[in-house]
Specification:
Length: 133
C-alpha cells in the first residue's frame, strides 16, 4: 500500500468519526436512548466538541493521544451502548447537521482550563513548600 492510499484511508476514517459524533449528539437528545448511554454519550460529545483538550496538543506525543485514542474509544463505547435502531434513525439527521458548523462546548473548555489552573496552583504550592521547608 503506497503512502497516498494510507493518507486517503486516514482521511476517510476521520470523516467517519466526525459523522459518528453528530449521530451521538442526536442520539443523546433522543428520548429513546437509555440513561446510561446518555451519560457516556454526553461525556464523549462534550469532550470532542470542546475547543480545549484535556491534554493540550502542544505537549509532544501526549497532546495527540487524546485525539487518537480517547475520542475514538469513547465514540465506539457510546455507539455500543445505544440501541442500533436509534443510531440508524439519527444517522440520516446527522448528515444534515454535519453540513452546519461544528458546535463548540465552551463549558467543557472552561472546565479543562480550571483543571490546568488547579494543577498549576498545586504544583506551585508544593515547589514553594520544598524550598521553604
Amino acid at each position: 500500500m503506497n503512502h497516498k492510499n494510507k493518507i486517503d484511508k486516514l482521511k476517510q476514517f476521520a470523516r467517519k468519526l466526525k459523522q459518528e459524533l453528530f449521530v451521538l449528539f442526536l442520539s443523546y437528545k433522543d428520548p429513546r436512548t437509555p440513561w446510561y448511554a446518555k451519560v457516556v454519550t454526553i461525556c464523549v460529545v462534550a469532550y470532542a466538541f470542546s475547543p480545549i483538550d484535556l491534554i493540550p496538543d502542544f505537549i509532544p506525543v501526549l497532546g495527540y493521544l487524546d485525539d487518537l485514542i480517547i475520542v475514538p474509544t469513547g465514540i465506539s463505547l457510546a455507539l455500543k451502548l445505544i440501541p442500533s435502531h436509534i443510531i440508524e434513525d439519527n444517522r440520516e439527521n446527522a448528515e444534515d447537521m454535519k453540513k452546519n458548523a461544528k458546535p463548540k462546548n465552551w463549558f467543557v473548555g472552561i472546565l479543562f482550563i480550571l483543571i490546568w489552573i488547579l494543577l498549576a496552583v498545586w504544583i506551585c504550592k508544593h515547589v514553594i513548600y520544598l524550598f521553604l521547608y
